[in-house]
Amino acid sequence: MAKILVIDDNIDICQLLDRFLTKKGYDVQTTISGKNGLDMVKKTHYDLIFCDFKLRDMDGRDVLMKVMEISPGTQVAIITGYADVKIAVEVIQKGAFDYVTKPLIPDEIISLIERALAATKDNQSYSVTFNRVSEAQAEKKLAKANSTDGYLRGIGKESKKLYKEIQLVAPTNLSVVIYGESGAGKENIARIIHDQSERAGKPFIAIDCGALTKELAGSELWGHEKGAFTGAHSDKPGQFEMADGGTIFLDEISNLSYEIQVGLLRLVQERKLRRIGAARDKSIDVRILVASNEDLRKSVQEGKFREDLYFRFNEFSITVPPLRDRKDDIEAFAQHFLQISNDELKKDVKGFDKDVMEVFKEYSWPGNLREMRNVIRRAILLSNGKSVSVSGLPPEVVYSRKFNFTDHQAEDRDTFGRKQKPAPSLKNAAAGAEAEVLRKVLEEVKYNRTKAALQLGIDRKTLFNKMRQYDL
What we know:
- 47% of the residues lie in helices and 14% in strands.
- It is of the alpha/beta class.
- It has 4 domains: 3-123, Response regulator (Rossmann fold, 3-Layer(aba) Sandwich); 144-319, 3-Layer(aba) Sandwich (Rossmann fold); 323-398, Helicase, Ruva Protein, domain 3 (Orthogonal Bundle), CATH 1.10.8; 405-469, Arc Repressor Mutant, subunit A, CATH 1.10.10.60.
- The model is unreliable at 121-150 and 401-422 (pLDDT under 50).
């Protein structure tokens, strides 16, 4: 069992990671003191340490350097609430394995741990064993939601069309572009494609290209040799190298810089990579899946994305429908997240009140599956009974309306394409007038929400809810 130490002066972070990672099968210890953490490292070998960048008694950089002296085989990941490129570059150059920013995202934490363990030779045998165990547990859990292969499946028309396309392309070695709104489940689709291919059982590496800075992207993707730059104390394999034989998923691909796109094109064409500072190329065999929440063809036209790289990737495309277009799947997805949240929070909520499901089916879910997961987790946490009630839902979900101001500005047409005057509606007229006032005020203050709320005589939360209601 891999040992993990969490050093963070925020006791809530310590407790959160302790519960979450213990449940995932790791041996976890926590401390709020940097000095106490170093004493623990002297007595016990840890495979991975999560250390806050800003501790009350020590600087996270100092903890990192001390750990490297005391236990060179221990990987260190820095936790920071400051999404600053300089911090990321500095800790990586000083020897940190990686860094994570608050708020912490469970999937990112697990991915980091798996990569850290895989990067340590002493932990390779453990990593394979643990991955098999965790996959088996996931399959058992998701089987309760009528899933046949470890993934939740929809039952509606749009979902059936989606999975038919997946079954068609998965067994091939084609590159796939996966389109979909943020939170729609693009990574989940990529994992299904991988697991239904001949590469199943081989590595699956997911990378958020939006989080890759120009300074770190090359090292993260291609890897580097010891001494390649200041702070490169050891060889580091890149994500493509770690995915050799398997599948790599590049999320939000359009965010990659032009320089990285050039290197990626060479890799795709020649199936070879060269670590930063290396003298020779290395052949790799990786299937590439990419995702974007915007049309890559438009990005090509705007000069943001290389046309030759687009055509290399666009051998097949899949569009993941937004949750608002999958009404038949709402209940199944909600039950799935109910079970997940019960397990995470150690609760035993049995289901949803009838009016809750009505609210879910009426709501537009702009954040898609990710938003639904968070809404249900919150509701489970607040629930004191055996079912989720409307009182446990966020106001923006409960008080949302199907009415969308911009939609009602569009002219209706009859079956012959002739313009029709919309039927008068006092409710729509009032909502339209309110939306117009909100829009004018926001434009006047250049969308400064604090100033807009003061000028309108409402609080920021009410303003935010109305902005979402009218899609402003």
